[in-house]
Amino acid sequence: xxxxxxxxxxxxxxxxxxxxxxxxxxxxxxxxxxxxxxxxxxxxxxxxxxxxxxxxxxxxxxxxxxxxxxxxxxxxxxxxxxxxxxxxxxxxxxxxxxxxxxxxxxxxxxxxxxxxxxxxxxxxxxxxxxxxxxxxxxxxxxxxxxxxxxxxxxxxxxxxxxxxxxxxxxxxxxxxxxxxxxxxxxxxxxxxxxxxxxxxxxxxxxxxxxxxxxxxxxxxxxxxxxxxxxxxxxxxxxxxxxxxxxxxxxxxxxxxxxxxxxxxxxxxxxxxxxxxxxxxxxxxxxxxxxxxxxxxxxxxxxxxxx
Amino acid sequence: xxxxxxxxxxxxxxxxxxxxxxxxxxxxxxxxxxxxxxxxxxxxxxxxxxxxxxxxxxxxxxxxxxxxxxxxxxxxxxxxxxxxxxxxxxxxxxxxxxxxxxxxxxxxxxxxxxxxxxxxxxxxxxxxxxxxxxxxxxxxxxxxxxxxxxxxxxxxxxxxxxxxxxxxxxxxxxxxxxxxxxxxxxxxxxxxxxxxxxxxxxxxxxxxxxxxxxxxxxxxxxxxxxxxxxxxxxxxxxxxxxxxxxxxxxxxxxxxxxxxxxxxxxxxxxxxxxxxxxxxxxxxxxxxxxxxxxxxxxxxxxxxxxxxxxxxxxxxxxxx
Lengths: 306, 320
Ligand SMILES: Nc1ncnc2c1ncn2[C@@H]1O[C@H](COP(=O)(O)OP(=O)(O)OP(=O)(O)O)[C@@H](O)[C@H]1O
Ligand code: SF4
Ligand SMILES: [Mg+2]
Fold this sequence. Notes:
The complex is a heterodimer of chains A (306) and B (320). With 306 residues, chain A is an all-alpha fold. Chain A has two domains: 2-73, no CATH class; 91-305, MetI-like fold. Chain A has helices spanning 2-29, 34-39, 45-55, 61-73, 87-122, 127-141, 144-158, 171-200, 203-210, 215-252, 258-267, 271-299, 301-304. The longest helix of chain A has 38 residues, at 215-252. Chain A is flat and about 85 Å long. The termini of chain A are close together. By secondary structure, chain B is of the alpha/beta class. Chain B has helices spanning 46-53, 81-87, 109-120, 128-138, 144-147, 157-169, 187-204, 215-221, 239-244, 249-256; strands at 2-15, 18-31, 35-39, 62-71, 74-75, 92-95, 175-179, 207-211, 224-229, 232-238, 305-307, 313-315. In chain B, the strands form two sheets. In chain B, strands 6-7-8-3-9-10-12-11 form an eight-stranded mixed sheet, sandwiched between helices. In chain B, strands 2-1-4-5 form a four-stranded antiparallel sheet, with helices on one face. In chain B, β4 and β5 form a beta hairpin. The longest helix of chain B is centred in the middle third of the chain and has 18 residues, at 187-204. Classes of the chains: A mainly alpha (306), B alpha/beta (320). The interface between A and B is medium-sized, with 22 and 31 residues. The complex binds adenosine-5'-triphosphate, iron/sulfur cluster (SF4) and magnesium ion.
């Protein structure tokens, strides 16, 4: 298992490099540039050239990329073009906010979605199944920003139970986490139900029954352990998406996380910040993928034991 | 002494095409320690007969609408869910066709055997672990102590089926229902698996219902045979009697078309026509559209079981 993990980590290095390089090229090719953003459109060509040189933007893109990569390897993510703040500092404080938001959304959607999926599978084709899956389908189909706006409308503006925006305590976490988590509850519940039903139809479930095991034990010992394997892998694959999905929700709720930072950086072409954020997302994606595979390996001896 | 007696069993499935009468009043019995072969074309109802005995028919869509299943003097159809759990794996065991999919991939073979032992607490076992090792040993798995820690995917097909037998027989049932236990296996290991079952049968004094397509297997391993046709039992007799002197036109067709008894009946288009569907079965005798000896009464009236003496039973108007 350890060797497998090491191997996977080594293989993931070119993936992370590739993602950041592509991001570099895309930023380079899209219209707009940070110099205009900083100096305004009426700046003299001399002033523009001077600033370009200072930021290294006059160099060929691959040279810029090489320089950036060298700095990253030395632990230097650069300085924000806009705020002059070191990028690592700007991201550092925001990363914890984003993780707090996404992990709350993730854990609560898992804790709700999984039992609902199991329940629906156990009550297959009953009213309880149809109703819970109908709700899950609705959650799954609506985008998170729609939930964000609806939650604000109901709980902040109408009922005035919870604050509209900001991050000044646990109360502020509830609505953005809900907005982010509700669509996930839908997809997790649906997937868990489908996987559970599939395993219930497997012949080894019939074997367990023929052995005299109670329905309850069959479900919790024989069925769920198998149904959990694909669901776990999917959850870990989805986590990085959840983090990038936070861009919109953080903006709506003025939640001071990475997503909000990303939004502003993209608007103003703050290259160093965008680069650093993409690097972090790429690394997180690779890590969570690996974590998903490790968990699958722990649950499934066919992967673990050769 | 009669161990199991099935009386007038009717089973139906709710399907998209309508109500399928999958077992249309079957009768048979099996004595202690005896081996009864259950043969018939694909879809005739062999597996559902076995599953009915253990009350493992999925309900819905399936439902046993009529009949009795008397096991050791008690009607299983009147047992509670809890009582049935004690009987399954404890007094009646069942093994299935494909050992690749009938063991749980995430638990070791030993764990899966231990689960049965812990559940049924068979007599004469000092500890669960001893029971596990003994069970694996009894099916000729070499080095059972370490093999018990293997997962199913680490076993070959034949070993898995023997592991399955070890698990199901670890609690010393008095009846084993073996649903095509060798069909999915390599020809080379089929004989070994049948031998393992036969050995344990002798040791435990257990009766076996052996469901199979293979008449060679029947000739070799069974005391009696029940020939099924489209949800009915056409004929039951001792093996020799059935092979030498088949009475039912369907059995005759089967045996007459097979030069040697070692052929798989599904491989042979032995009798013209195809198995009727269960939703709109032929009236009267379900075999009449394919029967060369069909008479007028066959199209109207369902034949009843006729006892020709010496436990030779046939359901056909020729013998009314
Ligand atoms: N769960 C189910 N739902 C609906 N119909 C079923 C179900 N299980 C079995 N049947 C029907 O019952 C009939 C008998 O099936 P069964 O599996 O007992 O056949 P079999 O004799 O064992 O055939 P084979 O030799 O192919 O195993 C078939 O027509 C089948 O379609
Ligand atoms: S009852 Fe009639 S149709 Fe059926 S097998 Fe006998 S002779 Fe043939
Ligand atoms: Mg079958």
